[in-house]
Design a protein that fits this description.
Layout lengths: L3 E7 L4 H4 L13 H13 L5 E6 L3 H13 L8 E3 L16 H11 L5 H5 L5 H11 L8 H21 L3 E7 L1 H11 L14 E7 L2 E9 L1 H14 L1
Length: 234
Amino acid sequence: MTETNLYVVRHGKTMFNTIERVQGWCDTPLTKEGQEGIHYLGLGLRDVPFTEAFSSDSGRAIETSRIILGEHTHGRKIPYSVDNRIREWCFGSLEGGYDKEMWGVVPRVLNFKNYDDMIETDVTFQQIAEAILAADTANWAEPYEVLRDRVWSGFEDIAHRREKNGGGNVLVVSHGLTIAFLLNLIDSSQPIRAGLQNGSVTRLTYKNGKFSIQEINNVSYIENGKQLSKTLLN
């Protein structure tokens, strides 16, 4: 049986990413810069033999997937599906506000002075999720247990089905905090990662019901794509 690998990509840079606004279940499209970066990523991944591809149901993830598959050597033949379980966290009434506002409120709910003070401690994703839930005046944010089960079942189902069907490489386009949360669910010693770059690749292997982390936040595929682009133009 072929090894099962998930190439988990954070979507390309969007309008809200650029102006530093909270973007969970709300959505904005990729900027021109974001599209360009994902075109390079697609070139960098073009020869990876993907057996199938998935993205969340958010427009920015769908747009990212289509660009990557459009650059892939066999992109038209790769089955592609969306799965709403691998979308970003829902931030409720905090959606659309400035990042600094949300990350100013959340530490205060948890009795920290500021964001840096919070991150430098042993704060957990569960505490952050519960603080977001407490700060959400619209009652839309997800309780931690719902969030945990959603994210885990989404990625685990993708990996488990692929393993049952002979293994192979799977492209999965998701979101920054969701990917960071998944890493922590796989390995509780993983830190709270707030800096996963747009278009970065986090590669996981899956065997007998267990994930192993192979690489995190790898942007070399984008750099390789840039070099390939120059070669193709010459």
